[in-house]
Amino acid sequence: MEDRQRLGRHLPVMADEVLTALAVRPGGRYVDATVGEGGMSERLLDACSPDGRLLALDWDEEALALSASRLARFEGRVNFVRSSFAELRRVLAEVGWGEGADGIIVDLGVSTLQLGRDARGFSFQVDAPLDMRMDQRLAETAADLCNTLPERELADTIYQYGEERASRRIARAIVQRRAETPLRTTGDLRASVLSAGVRGRPGHDPATRTFQALRIAVNRELEQLESLLERGWELLRPGGRLAFLTYHSLEDRLVKQAFTMWSASCLCPPERPVCGCGWSPKVRRITRRKQTASQQEILRNPRARSAGLRVVERLAA
Ligand SMILES: C[S@@+](CC[C@H](N)C(=O)[O-])C[C@H]1O[C@@H](n2cnc3c(N)ncnc32)[C@H](O)[C@@H]1O
């Protein structure tokens, strides 16, 4: 952990809104599926004091160690598990919460800790090994993808996950570069993006979208989210609430689609005159539309700028 932390501590995003939307109360059972540096968990544990309990998950070993030390004063009320949230159903059963939680928060994306650690390779602001794995047990790094994916697949990845219009030019530049020498560092990747003539939006580095795309691909972020959303209401007890904080449209779209389906009263195609699906709504929506951070919070914490909160409550069977 000797790397310098350039960006300071991760400030939890929209914590007041999350606690209100989850209706956190003493004695409840809560899950922080992405504990990170533990800021949101700390607020949750305070709010459910004196006897509420928390299951804290993260697949990043460093994040778990850091949050465990930050939350040491709640000893006996927190259970830390190193796991992807895609495995939450199994983890709940293992800790004896198989019938579900009263509240779950999933704060997606990358933490300030990860961005600030030079050795992790998430940031284009320092030259570091091109890694980007949130869980170091994952097999492939961003360098592996850059050096092995066929040009077309690389371009599709950058387009789909980065929504980068210059994806083809960037993929070509990466492939040309690696033909001479493999990409090893964040600087190599950024230089490839710049050599493709990408300008970027005002106020954003030209490599922002490419870095986001590779991070999503390395960590299979959307697949993890889809697994969690699969019958996700079953992770809650009746009356329990599930909250997502998303930071880009790809994540938000998946959450929105799932919540729309779960809260629908019928899943029949619209042209069908009589309902035959037998579906009943599983949840009610607590947030009608995506809730965003206040201007004051965005000024304090620029990361909150792109955050969106969506919350549902499980209905009684
Ligand atoms: C935005 S940070 C969470 C910050 C946290 N709410 C706080 O207040 O410090 C996101 C965290 O989610 C973790 N993460 C991302 N995808 C994950 C997954 N599939 N399973 C478990 N943890 C994941 C990352 O390792 C990172 O620590």
Question: Mind explaining what this structure looks like?
Answer:
- The protein is α/β, with parallel strands linked by helices.
- It has 2 domains: 15-113 and 222-314, 3-Layer(aba) Sandwich (Rossmann fold); 139-218, DNA polymerase, domain 1.
- 39% of the residues lie in helices and 14% in strands.
- It is built from 13 helices and 8 strands.
- It has helices spanning 15-22, 39-47, 61-70, 88-94, 112-116, 142-148, 151-162, 167-180, 186-195, 208-218, 221-229, 249-263, 295-300, and strands at 29-32, 53-58, 78-82, 101-107, 236-246, 283-285, 291-292, 308-314.
- Strands 1, 2, 3, 4, 5, 6, 7 and 8 form an 8-stranded mixed sheet that branches.
- Helix 2 (39-47) links the parallel strand 1 and strand 2.
- Helix 7 crosses helix 8, helix 7 (151-162) packs across helix 10 and helix 11 packs parallel to helix 12.
- The protein starts with 14 loop residues before the first helix and ends with a strand.
- Residues 1-6 have low confidence and may be disordered.
- The structure holds S-adenosylmethionine.
- S-adenosylmethionine is lined by residues 10, 12, 34, 36-40, 57-60, 63, 84-86, 107, 109, 111, 134, 224.
